[in-house]
Each structure stands twice: as C-alpha cells, then as structure tokens.
Amino acid sequence: MVAEKDVMRGMACSVEFAPDEVDAGGELTLGCKVSCDPAADLRGQTLLIKDQDDASIGCAKLTEFDGDASETGDFVVKAPIEPGAYTWLAVFPDDEKATGSPVGTSTPFSFAVKPHSLRILVWDAPSAIELGGKFTIKLGVKCSSECSPHGWTVEVRDHDNEVCAEVTLSEEPRSGTTALYYAEVDLRAPANEGRYAWEAKALAHDSNIAHAESVAGFGVRVVPEPECVLTVLAIDRESRAPVEGATVAVHPYTTLTDERGVAEVNIPKGQYRLFVSGKNYFPFRSDGVAKTDAVIEAELVLDSGLSDEDLWS
Questions:
Q1: Residues 247 and 209 in one domain
Q2: Structure confidence by residue, pLDDT tens digits, 4-52
Q3: Do residues 231 and 213 lie in contact, with contact meaning Cβ atoms separated by under 8 Å?
Q4: The pTM is what?
Q5: How far is Cα 52 from Cα 169, in angstroms, rounded to an integer?
Q6: Is 202 part of any domain?
Q7: 52 Cβ partners below 8 Å, 6+ apart?
Q8: What domain range is 72 assigned to?
Q9: Is the four-CA dihedral 181, 185, 189, 190 of positive or negative sign?
Q10: Are residues 125 and 209 in the same domain?
C-alpha cells in the first residue's frame, strides 16, 4: 500500500491506500492512523474522507490504539468514474474533548483513475482456409473489472484495415468463465494465396464507465483449393488399437483422429510431410508426393520412458 502522512500542530494523520492506480468506479482500500502529542486514545472517533470538491464520500471509526496512535483498519471507498489524477483528504475533525485541543488535522493522498482495460481472445480459427472460402472464428472479451457488455460489439478488420464483420457479444458469460463474453463471427478469406494479419477490436459502448480500446491480432492463412484427400489411420503398434485424439498435421493443415483413429486431410497435389502425434506416443512422420487420394497407416509407438538399462548404459 502507498502511505502518505501530514503533521499539524501536534497531531499527525497518515493514510495507506491500494492500489495507487484504480479502475474507474473501482474500489480503493484505505487505512488511516491518527496520533497526537501528548498521546491520546482516539478510539471511537470518526475520520472523514473528502474528495477533490470537498464532498464527504466515506468515513471510518478509529478502532485500534497501540499506545502511540489510533487506527481505523482497512475500509473501502469507491473511486470516481472519470479517468484522471485525484487528490483526496483524510480529515480528523476538531475534537477538544478527545485531544484537549480544538485543532484537527487532515492529510492529502493522491491516486490515479484509469479506464477499464479489455482483453480480447480469438480462438477456433482454422489452420488454413481455401481461396475465397468461408470460415468461422470465436471471439471473447473480458473487462478488468468484469463489467457486463450490454450491447458491446467486436469489429473484425482485414489486412487492408477494412471492416469485414461486426458482432454483438453475448449477454451471458461463456460457460466455465466468470466474465468472458463471446460471439461467433462468419468471415470470408481473401481470393489470393498467402498469410494475412487480421485483427479484432473491442468496442465498449458504455456511457458511464470509460474503457480503453483493445485490439487482438490473428492470422489468416489462405491456401489453394485441395485436390487430394489424405486419410490417416493412427494405431497403437503393439495392440493394433485405434488411437483417438491424435494430432494429424500436414502443414498448414491440422486435425485430430476420431474414435476409430481416423482423420482426413484435404491437401493440394505435390510434396507433403505428415506428422502424427498422440499423448504418450513417439511422433510419427511420413514424407510423400500427393497425386491422388491416399491412405496412410501411422503406427504409433508408446513412449514408456527410460528403463534402468537406458539410465545406466
């Protein structure tokens, strides 16, 4: 916590607060301590928090006394909703009965209010899309203060910075998350082969709370129309059982085997390099030339770890 202190005519007031940079409208945790000379037990007295306009926005009682100073313990106040730098006051009013003096004290403390930050996630983008083909991606946005979106949208821009889609986020968070709001968006790939850099931009339409602009980039790989189907059968070499969930990769195409250990990859004619990998198995590799549809049996060898003989040889 940040600490600030002020001394006035035999009295001292100090403030500890965290964080020193808080989200707009967020919570600011304060802890205040008041002492006087000679020392006096000020428990039960109230300390006020005043904002930049001298308006009272909170108070706390002094509840602890250590023989030298009285403390409030931690308490929470709300930060302003407008971003900027602020200086507030912790005020201990005049209390002649408690201190033997009609003089109170106050301490300024300064902090910053920042716009809420947004985090954008992009997932389920295909590893490769055919020339001019349609594809779908998923987008998610989470606010640093877990705000609900209420009509927020995400804008998708292509490599020419043209808006190619705009979708509204869900009203309910994605299952299994606390505040990740999501959407699916349908897109169309460019008509020319290559790898393109696209971006998703969150637009937080909120008239009360400021949100910082946030952008996340993602890649779009466009490939020629496939001409051959490569069917891969992944099996355990020892048991001959199919291996479900093995990763099948023929760059830039990637897929998984089904419960039969089968995966199909559509590829253009020409040279290819196939990798098949499964949990607890050594990777399988096969190089070839695609001329027509083909079937490849990938025998996966279980990785049983190093034996004692391996370790000591």
A1: no
A2: 555 444 678 889 988 899 999 999 999 999 988 888 899 999 999 999 9
A3: no
A4: 0.70
A5: 37
A6: yes
A7: 86, 87, 88
A8: 2-114
A9: negative
A10: yes
Q: Where does a domain end: 67, 85, 114?
A: 114
| Tally of structural domains, the chain | 3
Three-state secondary structure call for residue 131? coil
Task: Tell me the one-letter amino acid at 278.
Answer: G
Which two tokens mark 29?
A: 């945790």
**Rounded to whole angstroms, what are the CA distances from 129 to 57, 135, 194?**
57, 7, 10
Q: Cα–Cα distance between 137 and 188 in angstroms, integer?
A: 11
Supply the DSSP string of 53-80, one letter for each residue: TS-EEEEEE--EE-SSEEEEEEEEEEPP
How many whole angstroms separate alpha carbon 168 and alpha carbon 178?
Answer: 19
Tell me the pLDDT of the chain (313 aa) as tens digits. 555 555 444 678 889 988 899 999 999 999 999 988 888 899 999 999 999 999 999 999 999 999 999 999 999 999 999 999 999 999 988 654 444 443 568 899 999 999 999 999 999 998 889 899 999 999 999 999 999 888 889 999 999 999 999 999 998 999 999 899 999 999 999 999 999 999 999 987 766 788 988 999 999 999 888 889 999 999 999 999 999 999 999 988 889 999 999 999 988 889 999 999 998 999 999 999 999 999 999 999 998 765 555 545 5
Write the CB contacts of 311 (distance below 8 Å, at least 6 apart in sequence).
Answer: none
Burial readout 36-65 (b: 16 or more C-beta within 10 A, e: otherwise): beeebebeebebbbbbeeeeeebebebeeb
- Token digits for 132? 């001019």
d(CA 137, CA 220): 11
DSSP 269: S
